[in-house]
């Protein structure tokens, strides 16, 4: 194991593990998971591939896998225990939840103190990460969360959820936005909507 890997693991052990374990997460390597009936909530840490000998960075991504949404979004069956994180399209770098609203990496040193960065990450998880998971547990909260996401997956999920509420105008708006971004997907978007009964026929 490299010195950078050791530094990352020590930072997680001191500042992240206690908070997430207290919140009900289980840890396997750098992956924290919490199963809640219809879903699994994940916090996953990945080291940068550009780390140097004396300093490095890592990323913290959050995701929620809901098998029934994964099935409708990607026509794929998912077992909670085997979830990787992106199957149902609800995932984000924690930096997007912070005031700066952009991807963020976290720094570690092999010589020197990582206390300040550890405390910052701990606060980010407590103030933004854990509440993100909690908001997604209600229908309205999940819709608000998806509205902040910029991905095509988020638009498709919103179309599905609007359709489930028979809000077909709003569902169509989501599909129109996908086509606006990617005109080349026009035909496939129509086929995707028909296959999933977005407008009530399946």
Topology:
Elements: H1 3-22, E1 26-28, E2 31-35, E3 40-47, E4 55-65, H2 67-74, E5 90-93, E6 105-109, H3 115-135, H4 139-148, H5 152-164, H6 168-181, H7 186-195
Antiparallel strand pairs: 1-2, 2-3, 3-4, 4-5, 4-6
Report on the structure:
The chain folds into two domains: 3-141, no CATH class; 150-195, no CATH class. The longest helix is centred in the middle third of the chain and has 21 residues, at 115-135. The protein has helices at 3-22, 67-74, 115-135, 139-148, 152-164, 168-181, 186-195, and strands at 26-28, 31-35, 40-47, 55-65, 90-93, 105-109. The protein is elongated, with a radius of gyration of 19 Å. With 202 residues, it is α+β, with helices and mostly antiparallel strands. Strand 3 and strand 4 (55-65) form a beta hairpin. It is built from seven helices and six strands.
Brief digest:
Helix content is 48%, strand content 18%. It has 202 residues and is α+β, with helices and mostly antiparallel strands.
Q: Which of globular, elongated, flat, extended, rod-shaped describes the shape?
A: elongated
Q: What would the average pLDDT be, to the nearest integer? A: 94
Distance N terminus to C terminus? 52 Å
Total domain modules: 2
Low-confidence stretches: none
How many DSSP E strands? Answer: 6
Main β-sheet: number of strands, strand sense, barrel status? 6 strands, antiparallel
Assembly type of the chains comes to single chain
Structural class: alpha+beta
Share of β-strand residues: 15-25%
Portion of residues within helices: 40-55%
Question: Element order, helices and strands?
Answer: HEEEEHEEHHHHH
If helices are DSSP runs of H or I spanning 4 or more residues, what is the number of helices? 7
Radius of gyration: 19 Å
